[in-house]
Design goal:
The structure is a single chain. This protein starts with 8 loop residues before the first strand and ends with a helix. By secondary structure, the chain is α+β, with helices and mostly antiparallel strands. The strands form three sheets. The protein has a five-stranded mixed β-sheet. A two-stranded antiparallel sheet has the order 1-9. A two-stranded antiparallel sheet has the order 5-6. It is built from five helices and nine strands, in the order E-H-E-E-E-E-E-E-H-E-E-H-H-H. Helix content is about 30%, strand content about 30%.
Length: about 180
Amino acid sequence: MPEDWSRRELVESLVAAERQLDFRIPLGRLPRLESVLATPSGEAVGQVRFRRSLGTAVADMSLAATPTLTCQRCMQPLEWPVASNSQVALVPDVAAADRVVEGLETFVTENDRVSVRDLVEEELLLALPLVPKCAAGNACSRLVTDTRLQQDVDDAPVSVQTPFAQLGELLKRDQ
């Protein structure tokens, strides 16, 4: 039997019952997040409560996770703590998303069904950086700076190549 967090349920029944679910989802079980992770270890922990607000189905979600990403400077594993509290409007299509009140995130449901896993995965993807890097002042950033300085010293007299420099001469000859 699938875990509660992976089962897609009708939005209307979740909202009508004002259902509240605690979740503990292994990060390795989030397929869209898999390509971003350096390792599939860790888990997302939190709670989601479904309700209706101003005629819109809403999921109040709190989430904490520490996925391991790859620093794009030093290519080493980097833990990225995520703590999120959000209100997500559950809408059936993109047109309905345009009508959602400002301040709510939107999530387009599939056949008016949603799973907690889908909501968590979306929230994590939104919270992660496009280009993960170690924090400034970290050994990684100092290493990159030191390496650049050393390269500048090593490469002091730099010759600039201009591949089209002789093109002007050739054009003058053809005229």
